[in-house]
User: Fold these one by one.
Assistant:
Number 1:
Amino acid sequence: MDNYITLQLLADDGSPIEQECMIIGVFDVDGQDYIALAPTDDTETVLIYGYRPAGEEQFELFEIEEEDTYIKVVAEFNQIISEE
């Protein structure tokens, strides 16, 4: 896996934008993989998405739609970071 990924996102006005991110890591919560990304635009934001392999050296990202799941995943990420 490369250390960087470019996300294809939509701006508030619906226009497409690209966001380059550094891959912080992939981690597991309750048998599901998630990925933490840090935008390279010098913000302190961390983006967390669901993650699933989609072939050799390819993967898919998906939004975490359920709020309870998102809260649990963020808490696990914070725990992992605090242990490092």
Note: Residues 4-83 form one domain.
Number 2:
Amino acid sequence: MEESRKKGNPGALLPIGIFLILFLGVGLLSGDFYAMPAIVAFLIALVAAFFQNRERSFGEKLKTAAEGIGNEDIITMCLIYLAAGAFSGTVTAAGGADSTVALGLSILPPGIAVAGLMLIGCFMSVSMGTSMGTIGTLAPIAVGISAKTGFSVAVCIGAVVSGAMFGDNLSMISDTTIAAVRTQGCEMRDKFKENFFLVLPAAVVSLVIYVVVGRNVSYQVSTEMTYDLWQVLPYLVVLVGALAGLNVFLVLIGGTVLSVLAGLGTGTILLGDVFKVMGDGVTSMYDITVISMIVAAIVALVKKNGGIACILNMIHRRIRGKKGGELGIAALAVLTDIATANNTVAIVIAGPIAKEISSDYGISPRRSASLLDIFASLTQGLIPYGAQLLLAAGQTGISPLAIISYTFYPVLMGISVIAMILLRKQKD
């Protein structure tokens, strides 16, 4: 068995195949890619993993699965998820999201309304750590701007989705960022810096395109945009604290406390509701926390049986050098997200394999974390059955395919990063 693990065992990948067949099969048959809950498909895959390799007892397999779940990075990742949920729940209840939108609309010139939607989306998604929350908040405003100006709804909501996906892989409290950082073993601050400079050209070009596309658009806010800087402050504190390299738990706890104080001070949170809104935020992270643990158990069993070695052997036969390794990680993230329609789950699945690739080809952890996050997020922003585009379509009443045509940022992000990989001088 040890020899088969070195060479790789294709049969060990069966649990991952079962997950993909169940998740994609039910989605295709029902027309709803969320008809099969990911956690159910993963649990069935885990059961299949336990039935493999009869040379090992059930107790040995259980120990392997437990060691996978108990990995320091997995436990830390799950705890950060819960802390991020507490912050997100309290800052949203405190009115932080509404104040951020109002502040942005108040200070941006109406002549750049479409580009302004992306700009506000960028700040909101980086601050809130959720592309879904950003789209849900800004979609009605995009529809309003379209109605006032007669400009295409698809362009307006495309700008919103572009801004949402910008922060999806940059935010310090985004579940995708947390997953990428913990699976690759790097610091949040280092990953942010690496990630930021990789995607900055795409963000700038996207904004320019939206300015040009909407250059004749003028939009006047019909109602008074009221905001409170105290409600926006927690976002800024978390962002600055994380960039300064402070412990992520301390940053999130501090942001949560500040959000509670802002909510109590402005009257948006009642004293008796403090723990409720905090609990609601934590609860919203339960799914991804449990999924991360189950996936860790599956990956541990698959790796023990030679499945990971099989994938790595296939990758090694097709790529050469550091550039090839980086493109391999990018392809891995894209394919996994296409299969799962969830960029966080895709990163959790692909993370251990990407870490092995980065180790083999001398790719820094912050680089591999950035590539995982970037390519999973850009794919998520372009697949018509992904949650982000489905939400945007549902909020605006148009087809996801119509929105994709004007979602410039994810496309440009992929082009920009691939160009940087190919053109950068590296010692292979």
Note: The radius of gyration is 22 Å.
